[in-house]
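Notes, p. 3: input format for complexes.
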Amino acid sequence: MLALETIGLTKEFSRGKIKALNNVSLSVESGQIFGLLGPNGAGKTTLIKILLGVLNPTIGNARLLEKPINDIGVKEKLGYLPENHRYPDFLKGGEILDYFAGLAGLPSNQISDTKQRLLKLVNMEKWQGTKIKKYSKGMLQRLGLAQAMINDPDILFLDEPTDGVDPIGRKDIRAILNHFKEEGKTIFLNSHLLSEVEMVCDKVAILDKGNLIRTGTIDDLTSTSKTYRFQLSKTPQKIIDGLHQFSLNIHHEQNSIQVTCSNQKKLNGIIDYLRENHIEIKSIVPHRQSLEESFIEIIKKI
Ligand SMILES: Nc1ncnc2c1ncn2[C@@H]1O[C@H](COP(=O)(O)OP(=O)(O)O)[C@@H](O)[C@H]1O
Ligand SMILES: [Mg+2]
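Output follows (302 residues plus magnesium ion):
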């Protein structure tokens, strides 16, 4: 089942002077973590706002949980953590969740249990009685995630959830997202932080200046080149010289070598050659292009 689908979405602002989205068609399967990547101003927030019904598209259409986006019933199945959200900072974390639970129409006898369950999930139980002006950015984002989940949504929209959060806070957020996924939910997240996305997303799309440039799994976008890094017990120069029969490209540094070979047969040739020469192989690691490297390459080509 598709959790969401956009069909030729175009959004213009300022009477057509700004084209925030240009004919964007994408789909997200249920249960996936989907990452929409792109530099600032690419149109990511605009796309989420259209899906939520906050903005209307200029042209095109979209479906959520196989219903049109203006379907009222579908709204209660959505959760949303806006970019740079601001809660009134004189409120305590727990009070904010009470307020949003009320907005979501949760029956009053369920509010307390739901709130405690979510606070535990985001590891904020201890802080529910503290005013949020004392919270760090990571704590605010964790509280924001609890807020976005208060109505037990099927699709969670997160706009830059880890922006401004320190590395430990980001790790906590990733764990929460994975937990949510294990419950069978769909997550649609916007981010310009590629290394984050790489760690959690099943599928990604790259948006640039309103145009959808690529869609695929992380594997599709980060092709493994045929480069391998070997850790060896020793690397005498005559062995390195001998490796040139298998590989055109060799980098040598202390006891490590990096070789590029055209096929697997050559790679196995290298292994046999090293073993025959009594070199101990400690590890062989294929070198994968990072999402960041692919992203820069893809954006540059346009
Ligand atoms: N309400 C608006 N009025 C005019 N221009 C807007 C409005 N919202 C967004 N834009 C413009 O649309 C483009 C895409 O913005 P946005 O969706 O916020 O990008 P992103 O979230 O990828 O950073 C930008 O050029 C932005 O300035
Ligand atoms: Mg944005």
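The two ends are 33 Å apart (CA to CA).
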